[in-house]
Design brief:
Blueprint (H helix, E strand, L loop, with lengths): L3 H10 L3 E7 L7 E7 L9 E2 L2 H30 L3 H16 L6 H9 L11 H8 L7 H11 L6
Antiparallel strand pairs: 1-2, 2-3
């Protein structure tokens, strides 16, 4: 686990402030905790009793963001360059993926398999990837799939 100095420096590099605070309560008038704040910080205002707890939460969030990006970005690229017929096929494949887990088109299966998931599988450059991802709006995978499916619904009069 990174030292206090490295923890503060890392989060500062992202524009966030990590500081030690005293929470009310406890036997001696308060309990020390770590608080993280910052504009658009996904953990903004959260307090953690230990640095380990802060890092565990951050690593879990990072794993989720990196995994989502590894799936969503290729789908967005495919969509942008697709013809109407290809878009219809993408929609059909996404609809099937959402409906029946485990029954997916080969290209979706390949995307999911290629995207590493979990804190134990973070890529070596995860800090650099997170710095870039935090500059983008975050939309969970299923929200994007739902959006594409919604856009493709048959029009009713």
């Amino acid at each position: 686990m990174p030292s206090t100095k490295k923890t503060i420096a890392y989060f500062a590099s992202l524009g966030y402030l990590v500081e030690k605070v005293v929470l009310r309560g406890g036997n001696k008038g308060g309990v020390e905790a770590w608080k993280i704040t910052g504009k658009d910080c996904p953990l903004d205002g959260r307090e953690f009793y230990t640095r380990l707890e802060l890092w565990a939460e951050w690593l879990d969030y990072s794993a989720e963001r990196i995994y989502a990006a590894a799936i969503v970005e290729p789908i967005k690229s495919m969509w942008a360059g697709a013809t109407e017929e290809e878009r219809a096929n993408i929609i059909a494949d996404l609809r099937e993926w959402k409906k029946v887990e485990g029954h997916t088109a080969p290209w979706i299966e390949q995307l999911v398999r290629k995207a590493s998931w979990g804190v134990d599988n973070l890529p070596r450059d995860w800090k650099a990837k997170m710095a870039l991802l935090l500059k983008k709006d975050y939309t969970p995978i299923w929200s994007i799939v739902d959006h594409l499916l919604w856009k493709s619904r048959p029009k009713t009069s």
